[in-house]
Amino acid sequence: MDNQNLKGQSAIVTGADSGIGKGVALALAQAGAKLLVNYFHNLQAANEVVSQIIDEGGEAIAYQADVSKEHDVQRMFAHHLDVFGSMDILVNNAGLQKDAKFVDMSLDDWNTVIGTNLTGQFLCSREAAKIFIQQGIRKGISKAAGKIICMSSVHEVIPWAGHVNYAASKGGISLFMKSIAQELAPQKIRVVGIGPGAIQTPINRDAWESPEALTKLLTLIPYNRIGQPEDIGKLAAWLASDEADYITGTTIFADGGMTLYPGFADNG
Ligand code: NAI
Ligand code: BGC
Q: 141 CB contacts (<8 Å, ≥6 apart)?
């Protein structure tokens, strides 16, 4: 733990039992933040993240909530305040894919993806904003009254055939994030997006598990490596810190160049 620039702060990271959320929770804890590790189904995985944080000298609890359910979300934020007394950082990370060809996509799969990826960010951000506004700036702890980080994707700008529910949710996150950033800036609340490229997690296992799939995936990544959850964790910890105090209302892409139209490198 060399850089403790989130010391004295506490955070909720949704979907923190797996993949990017786990990487973000560990990075925030390493920077000194106390963590509520939200999980949906996998208590054991959440407990492992909590144990790792505690073993490294941090403080954390696991908490079950479905981010698409208003009551679950309200219960989670109330629990966070009961345990930690205040709150400084929300990372809206929970998300999922339900892929299908457009003409075969069921309304259920559309609603599940929008409900989790987009409505989930609305419900969590609203609770966080209420707390941050009531709390105000905690002098000596952070320059902002609160920080909200929205996990978006390169697919907030790259269209994605076969994944229209997912791409629509991420495109929605972009203007959701910018609009609340505009509304909440006068109250000294910063809202930022992170747009990861392909990060090696369970969500995209099919795209990296076999050597053939990985080779095909790498043609989309000029930097020629798949991303790791730590790549996103370090960025989230920095964005949450006062080092990034003048950053609000924008998405930072961490994608090894995936948004650089790699197909044009020797064409067009
Ligand atoms: P993952 O599948 O490892 O993790 C997703 C997490 O969200 C899991 O913990 C899951 O339980 C949780 N979750 C799903 N529905 C939930 C609900 N209703 N309530 C609470 N938690 C719920 O996948 P990964 O890759 O770590 O994804 C995390 C975020 O990063 C997602 O928003 C995803 O869209 C985004 N992302 C992932 C990229 C990748 O290449 N892995 C790239 C760009 C964005
Ligand atoms: C998706 C992954 C995909 C990545 C790059 C993410 O938003 O969840 O499945 O590998 O974008 O296309």
A: 8, 9, 88
